[in-house]
Batch of 4 targets.
Target 1
Amino acid sequence: MTSINLADRGVDLGEWAASTPDAAEVFADAVRAWLDENLVGEFAALRGRGGPGSEHEFFAERLAWDRHLASAGWTCLGWPTRYGGRGATLEQRIIFHQEYARANAPARVNHLGEELLGPTLIEFGSDAQKERFLPRIVDVTELWAQGYSEPGAGSDLANVSTTARLDDDRWIVNGQKIWTSLAHVAQWVFVIARSEKGSSRHKGLSFLLVPLDQDGITVRPIQQLTGTSEFNEVFFDDAVTDSDLIVGEPGEGWGVAMGLLQFERGVSTLGQQVGFARELENIVAIAKSNGAADDPEIASRITRAWIGLKVMRAQAQRTLAGEIVSQAGAASVLKLLWANWHRDLGELAMAVVGAASLIGPDVTAEGAVNDITDAEHVELDEWQRLFLFTRADTIYGGSNEVQRNIIAERVLGLPREARQ
């Protein structure tokens, strides 16, 4: 297939591709072969595990899988080699995410570090920060959480009220974050805090790196509709972090935060769409088997879902190829497309399954669940989880309303929405 080991961390994939005929095909074959050879044994049971609504499943085992990927050189592909990455091209990164999704490989536990914070530190961080944190993201020995949303601000990042005060050689952080994914299993959190007293909106914010294992931080899981707790509320009561663990300059965290959000909607989106396509294919199979496909309304909704998937893919490819004038606007359009599409798919799944979709846990049998808060025992099927979890798709990562404001103001040049 190829004369070199593509999983070898010493290989610069970009340089290799430039000198290798049919490099894309060879790379895809290498990724596919490695996944086939390694998703076996103890890892075989992880296929399809840990997705939306099932983030609690096999966490320790999925962490071991991520570290297995790292040991074979398959983490942080797009990072420059001097930071422990592979120098992969955009095409190679897309191929990896697509093949990973096609293999039904388990959901990764290191997404926030590998896809968000790592690229942000490479772009904005100090040399000391890169040396301290990047190797531990590459080998998955430290996990990260994202401290953005707040109870009073929601997706309006510029309205955060968590404060940070510089006291000699450390920052003192006070406030509360909410919807903080994976904070209960992470060692660190990157936090947007207001560091200039009296400042407002996007001015006076700082981007801090804060250790979670300290007396000044309380992490409290939030139970979701699915009965699981993937995200949390995090309380900062005189929490501390070193004075040099600020990314960028004090008061200029808004630019760093916006840079990170651009990384959030990167090449992994195309891999996500492979998973969406699998969900749609399975729903179509059910519709054919139970006769739901004979209903003209359901058949029409399936057709619209298929068209929507093609539109999403085309938009993602145009965005990643740099064919969109406004990257901020393009990211918002793509978020609107996939979030609404996925929410509608959950509703379609309920319609296709029919009355059986309304049947929940057995509440009459001996030992039955009598309280939905008993998350350890609530059992939902795949389509119930999909329906319930996708209620949140249009909220997290920037709500529909926020995305539409970005498009209106930054792309169309419309007047800013009135704010109190």
Note: The CA atoms of residues 208 and 246 lie 4 Å apart.
Target 2
Amino acid sequence: MELAVIKHNGEDTGRKITLSDDIFAIETNDHAIYLDVKQYLANQRQGTHKSKERNEIAGSTKKIKKQKGTGGARAGSIKSPIFRGGGRVFGPRPRDYSFKLNKKLKQLARKSALTYKAKDNSVMILENVSFDKPSTKGYIALLNGLSLSGEKTLLVLPEQNKNVYLSSRNVPKAKVVTVNDVNTYELLHADKLVLCEDSVSMLETLLLK
């Protein structure tokens, strides 16, 4: 699959890049995508949820009423879960939601996501981007030049560029990552995948090793 390299203003540079069929035209695996996205979302959870059980509630431990003869059910302390203000039965406790996935499965998931993007014609190749200083206006102008204003975009840089990242941070629906940080969830979440020229070869090296 060949794609033209686009300038920042949306014009064609006259150069073309061939995308590897081993990444952008594989037999997709939806279950691998599901597992990778599930892991990504699980890793976003703090897992700090907590409710108090009866042994953690502040209150008297005095027996509320006598055991027998009242005509009602027996009752212990006011901290019992059946009373208002009592402890919660089997409430949530802090826990770690993360789980392990094999590296090859994660690679398969990312390649499947990239294949879907290529099939939908949602991949663009852009000249390498570099800003001298953070500029939200400059990043918006870049998106306007590519006719991507208002769309969910994922720009993949070959290496960390703080100015480009800071420029995109306040732009709605815009996300900037490096090749090493590309993940299945963000690939599928974006309407358009914008790859910098140098990012293509690095992405192929990363996913084919």
Note: The first strand starts at residue 2 and ends at 6.
Target 3
Amino acid sequence: MRLLRAERFPAFLLLGAAVLGLIVANSPVGGAVLDFSHIELAVPGTPLDLSIAHWVADLLLAVFFFGVAVELQFELTRGQLNTLGKALKPAIGAAGGVLVPIGIYLVVAWDPATRDGWPIPTATDIAFALGVLAMFGKGLPSKVRVFLLALAIIDDIVGIVFIAVLFATDVDLASLVVGVVLIAVFALLSRLVSEGNRVVLVPLMIVLALVAWAFVYSSGIHATIAGVLLGLAIRQGEGMRARHVLEPWINGLILPIFAFFSALVVIPQVSPSELSPALWAILIALPVGKIIGITLFGSIAMAVRPKGTPPEIRLPDLIAAGALGGIGFTVSLLLSSLAFADDGVLRDEATLGVLGGSTIALALSGVLVSLRARHYRRLAVAETV
């Protein structure tokens, strides 16, 4: 369990699952596995009738977003983003990491058939970013780590907003209201939990959470938003306890399964010129757009400081942060499946763009973070001497 709570191993597990999915999809058993992912599983007496792949993306990933939202609640109230001053500079950097990739995507893939994919390269995978920092960032100052963490968290917020606002379809207000009421009851129960009644109230909260998820799904709002709302509504102490219990399952099971199913993509047997502009737009926008956007906007944010004082985060550190931001992976894969839900070919090519762009950013960020960490270790040794 300790290994699954670490920062390095889950990132390797996630990447390995995605690579395995891509290999399996292009192997002799690929067709059978893809057919398996499309098997419909219905819950009798309910409108819930989803394929296995959609159960993974809609229900299991809601658990992941619950954990993300619990962390967001903590950071916004008692953590790195609990004041405007703390949040402003990473927020400006994150804004550049969203706007510039969108701009690059639209320049490359402006065609009406592909331009709906513009949200895809805006995401940052916080699990991968932390994994790279853990592996290569020994010696980085805490202020650099805090900036990177805040940047990734704000990117998560942006991704959640995009999912909630852009991909709601034919919203059923009655189902949504019931879901919100159930979430409010869930929040109330979380505030009544004590050691004496935990054995009764916690199972009841789990049932309420599942039913609330079902109503949010039925409302036409993407079901992962139910996980976000539950994570923001739960009492913070109970939320952190739940996140601690769920963390090994999220890292060791939920995210690898999602990565595997998302990467079940048959590589098109065509020349590069025949590939969709969406693939090239994502492939460029994730590693290049994030570096340019975060570095440019982050430099502007750091320029606002007392005269004669050095910037809080230096330019090379901003470039390393931009490279880390280009690891889109989990949320970008989800956005790919949502943006091109009605076009399987485009969805598959967008997925390849996410995998390729994230891999480039992963390699680049590993080099840049390692160089910056080495620089700070040398400074520490020089100061000691």
Note: The chain has a mean pLDDT of 88.
Target 4
Amino acid sequence: MGSIVAALDALDAAIERVGAADIEELPPPERFVALERLEHAVRRQVAISHEQLTRVERYEGCPPIPIVLADALRISRAAAKRRMRDAEQLAPRTTLTGEQLPPLLPATGKAWDAGLLDGEHVRVIQKFFRDLPDHVGPVEIEKAERTLAEHAQTMRPDQLEKIADRLAVHLNPDGKYSEEDRARKRGFLWCGGQRGDGMSVGKLVADPQLRSMLEAWFAKFAAPESDDLRSHGQRQHDALSRLVRDRLGDPKLGQHNGLPVTMIVTTTLQDLQAGAGHAVTAGGILLPMTDLIRMATPANHYLAVFDGVTGQSLWLGRSKRLASADQRIMLLAKYRGCTAPGCTVPGYNSQVHHAAKDWKHGGTTDIDDLTLACRCDNLLVENEGWTTGQLSNGQTAWHPPPGVPLIGGTNDYHHPERLLGDEDDP
């Protein structure tokens, strides 16, 4: 314990000296040499940090390591999980019996530990093996990993990527992929949040079955009409919109978290009357008021209206009475998503949570004591010692267990108007 603290103190002092040094005292060519040494030192520190991650253990009251790591280092949980995965692949491993094992990517791990690779190099190598078909044998895999690690030490990541592509073709010249290979690659993801103009960009990797079904749908509903000025892409977009719009609210879809599968939208009376501004969905999407009004007629959605001045709930429009499910709709409208600090999980994927006292411990299902929490954060309260409570302004405060280096407080992510001090907005 003392040795690493002393070493970190010395490192901090050395960094201060490097930061205070003037690179301009060197001749121009030698400045690049100094920058190279600095880059090497930074990479070594990152590699050492990853290796130390393999020795971090949970203790009593401590949530899963990636959650603590994210708060302690102030990085995203996705980044924390990625660092843990990198450590598992690049750092030596220890079995439960104490036996030392080499890294999963031994040649890459050795170069990484020596400070010869950047994170981008590692991403290229990881992607190569992630995309490699299952029929490639272990001998070829070992040779490929060693080859890529060697080339990574002399190439930029973009150059290494080209080598990796050539090597992938060499190992799979006939382009054979199994059902499992294709299934592993399928997926749809939004590429970030909404853009400034309200539009969103997504990436779809479709398996043959999905594409064949979409092609059949597009043949009918994306076909050009007379005097149709839309582009091919715009027609396909509108065809997908029709496909989803005609299905939302259908009783055959069942329920999600106790509610019909449809849109739940929040707005203020003032914006609704003016026909301007934005409504907010339980998925966290800003919906222009003109779109909301246009969508209101043909579809069965749920609309919660608040007073834009007092925040008082005024009206809940719905296609049928839902009894206690009305509470969930108003919670989705009020909180919009998980209330745990920094959590971005939208309302659709959140659960109802008793803020003061859990129901199984005698808490009441009172709307003033209910809030929203995603499944992971709900488990923090049930199993990891977190506590929650309602503030006088209606926000939910989260408190970590004592002695655990986690960040508590409230969550403003789903309410960007609070970031600007517009507290009267819902």
Note: The chain has three domains: 26-179, 188-245, 254-426.
